[in-house]
Every structure is written in C-alpha cells, then in structure tokens.
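FAQ
Q: What does a multi-component entry look like?
A: The components come first, one per line:
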Amino acid sequence: MVYVYAIIEAPPAALDGMTGIDDQPLRVRAHDGIGIVFSASAAGAVRPTPPNVWRHEQVVENLMKDHAVLPARFGTVMPDPEAVEETLARHHEAFAGGLRRVRGCVELGVRVMWQSEAGTGADGDEPAAPPIDAPGASGRAYLAARLAEEQRRRAAVRRAAELAGALDETFRSCAADGTFRVLPSPKFVMTGAYLVPRDRAHEFRRRVEDAGAAHPDVRLLCTGPWPPYHFVPAVAAPEVARA
Amino acid sequence: MTTDLEPHTAEEELTLLELLDRVLDKGVVLSGDITLSVADVDLVYVGLRVLLSSVEAAERRRAE
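Then the predicted structure of the entire assembly, as tokens:
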C-alpha cells in the first residue's frame, strides 16, 4: 500500500531526504508537469494519531514552500504506485485547474468566538428556567423564563448571521476566494477559510486584527498559513470506511 | 489510540482544532480510498472536546 500526501505542480524527479508517516521516504510519480507525493505504507489504515496527523501536515507544508499543492485528505491510501499513476492520468485536468487556482496562495483560517457567555444564548446574567417541579415554582414563571431564554438564543443567531456576513465581506476583499460557516457550534460565531495571495497574507491578518478591535463582543483568531485544504477540486466523493 | 494532544494554551488548542478540521475533513479525496474509519475520526474529536471545555475555562478565567 502507499499513503498519499499531496498533488504538486512541477514535481522534482526525487524528494531527497524527506520522510513521511512512520519515517518512510517520500516518493513522487509525475505525469505531464503534475506529481503525486506518497510513501510506502504497511497494510491497513493509517491511524489518526496526533503524530501521524502532524506528520501529514508537515509533509504538505514542506512541499508548499516550493510548489503549488493540493493537499490530500488524511487517510488516503492506494494499492501501489501504479494506481497513483492511473489517478494522475485520470484526473489530470481537474488537478491542473485546481493547482492553477491555488498557485501563489495560502489558506488563512478565521475563527470568531463570543467574547462573553451571554452571546452564546447560554445562561447569562438572568437565571435559567427553574425546573418545573421546583418547590414554589409557578407554571407562569417557568414559561416566562423559557421564553426569555428562547429570545436570547434567537438574538444570538441573528447577531451571528449579521456579524459573519459583514466580516466575510471584509476578509473576502483581500482574498482570492473564501468560504465560511455561521455558528458551527454555540461557542463560535463563525469559522472561515480564505485563499489569500502569499504577499497579501500580512494585510489579511491586519484586517482580522482591525475587525477584532471594531467588534468588542467577539474575539477573532487568525490561523495559518495552511495548505489550501478548503480549496481543492472535488474529483471523487469520500467513501469513508465504516469501522 | 491516543488523543493526548497536549497543547499548552487556549490559542494552541484552537489551532489544533483548526488543523483537525482541515486534515481530517477537507483536502482532495481520490476515488473513494479513504481508509480512515468514522469511529477513529470521532475519537479524535471527542478527545478535542475535552480540550475545548478547557478552552472555555481558560477564557472565563481571562475574563474575570
């Protein structure tokens, strides 16, 4: 079996001295200017342990220094190097288009968190609804508290959508592309991923900082540069093994 | 399997979450050959949820 890390542009004939998961030397197969980087792998799944996940990431980041890359999803294995070559030939056009799109760019992540618990719609300063069977609790008080809770939750959802839209517009204006999710969990207002030209990464980060200063009810975290995980072409539907 | 990811600060924990959201969930899928099991992925995220509650605790401490 072989384990696949990434598809790269202008692959070298060999990747000397670089190793991947389980310290296996990296190998490359190329076809018409595009290469797939892989290493030998023992039969069976590569486990998603922290060292393996970090190694996958390090290999892709190393390749990204000198090449346009399309990172592979963690856990991608193929029967042998010949299967790698077949994949390369079959999807050459999609890979070429994908590489053109990310060339010279990095992915930057933005995570927006509520500054206080109140924004999450969770218990703020007002008490939560008392249990209906609490001593002395009236049905009316219970319902009123439930209503207040629901109103807080709805206000948080509205505020999140409004904020995410405004922030996305700000970030997108210095990015080649972008994608975001509103309220991926109650704790986070928004998570976004942006494809940013390398030479504008600094400007992008500055923009995130400025947005943080402009919106005191949230805290913003900018991560990266990452390989462009969110901006890869879809060539096949994931078919995840069921354990 | 192990989930002792050992980040030291709230920011590192969030960066780790960002990493996992990418490496395990995004990236090119080549002809249906992901051998990672759903149970494996869930385990990694369950480990992370423990970390995330400590993120929240850290944030609360900072706010106080």
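Q: Is there any commentary attached?
A: Sometimes. For this entry: Chain A touches chain B through 55 residues (CB under 8 Å).
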